[in-house]
Amino acid sequence: MQDKQDPSLAGIMATRRQFMGAVGMLALSASLVGQTSMARAEPKQGGSVKFAINDGTQTDSYDPATWQNSYTQVIFGGTLCNALTELDVEGAAVPDLAESFAPSDNLKVWTYTLRPGLKFHDGTPVTPNDVIQSYRHHMGPSSSSAVKALVDSIVDIKADGDRKVVFTLSGGNADFPYLTADVHLVILPAKPEGGVAWEKGVATGPYMIDDNQPGISVRMKRNPAYHKPGQPYFDAIEFVNIIDVAARTNALLTGEIDYMVDVDIKTLKMLEQNTDIEITKVSGLRHFSFSMNTKTAPFDNPDVRQALKHAIDRNDVINKAFLGNAKVANDNPAAPQIVFAVNPEPIHEYDVAKAKEYLAKAGLTTLSVDLSVAETAFPNAIDAALLFKEHAAKAGIDINVIREPDDGYWDNVWQHKPFVGVDWLGKPTLDSLFTTTYATGAPWNDTAWSNGRFDELLVQARAESDKTKRQAMYSEMQQILHDDGGALVIAYALFMDALSKKITHGKIGNMLQCDNFRMAERWWLA
Fold first, then answer.
1. pLDDT tens digit string along 287-329?
2. 17: which residues sit within 8 A by CB, 6+ positions away?
3. Angle at 25 between CA 228 and CA 482, to 5 degrees
4. C-alpha torsion sign, points 145, 146, 147, 152
5. Among 180, 201, 222, which residue terminates a domain?
6. Count of other CB atoms within 10 angstroms of residue 178
7. Last residue of some domain: 201, 229, 257?
8. Are 329 and 491 within 8 A, CB to CB?
9. Most buried residue, 209, 219, 304, 389, by most Cβ within 10 Å?
10. What is the pLDDT of residues 200-224, one digit of tens each?
11. Distance CA 105, CA 127 (A)
């Protein structure tokens, strides 16, 4: 799903229609179930709901620099807070706290105008300084923010009057409104001495904190002064962290919760037969991978990486572990619906002879590696790993599948052990995906991969307005990742969630989990 891009952006004001025509938009990806064309009842206010997420930890905090799981991104990023822009249901970057945004001719200077009358939950007004300090929270050499790499290109931020904020970049960036929609780049109150006051959980979002028990539950109440007329709809929401999928399913069936992420594929048919439950299947940017640390033997050898990439039968994994609810990936993290995505050649198919050939190039006849997974790594990750073990054995590769505890997996296993299962929610542009995850030194570069040519192209493509040249650059980058990278990308996955039919909604956002993280403000009681 690749929309064309207009290379000319001079003087464009970012209304939704204009920006989609000018910068180029991500086309709509079909949502398969629960996305009917049937007209639904008008939204109404009232009632309370309980949503279950599955990857919270006791170290989760209100600090947006630390958010790396869906629990924090959905609850704090999408429910407690707002950014300058947001992703609408079609994946477009549209105004949120900003009412408009416009680039300079060379795409290096972007001016954002805040909506009038914006207030934080404590009643204080939102000012340009709050925006400036919220961005600086992620910037600078001492920053450990998850999105430091995204904002490194910002060389200056300044106020222009009471409502305008001007960003100056080191180079042009046609995708900058997508960057400002990132869930980490929310606007928080500035401290008088500089920095942001994130500790109390005061922000601008549709719901305010009532009670927070980190990694366990968060209770929230409606923000009566929210800037979107009529929204949100629920009086109150409680989010609970239920890691075990069987426990989530049972809680939904007994009415303890009203919504759960990540349906158990093994019980999918049973849930589909329940007339009180709706299953939503949304084709987004999500993908599952086995990540190899390229700085650790034997994964530091590109031939070993290629051997492993040819030693897995992705079709078999999708059919057996995911029961067909995914699409084959080709060691490319760029989902097909992202603008400029390609499918690099040659296709990495299951090929025992080729896997052995690559082992021989590495000077090996056999190979033994540990693969760390847990059910929280991605749905049915353990089954997928065991199937991989069967496939690889035929090529002389012994994969020792280590079942890690679900609790603490993201804190103690991911980015700590050399070969791990990973669930990626994805990013809406190739620039944001590559900058945060595959560029040298990127915070989520769990493969520790580094490629000079890739890094060079990343900077060039970001500033390029000619769509043909940009496509060529991004195509080469995807080819480099496919051929040399440490990510064994198995599948592009569906977001499959389940909810009580007492909840209703419009079209569900097709990019990120939980209605592009905004289900709390977009959904209502039937």
1. 999 999 999 999 999 999 999 999 999 999 999 999 999 999 9
2. none
3. 125
4. positive
5. 201
6. 23
7. 201
8. yes
9. 304
10. 999 999 999 999 999 999 999 999 9
11. 26
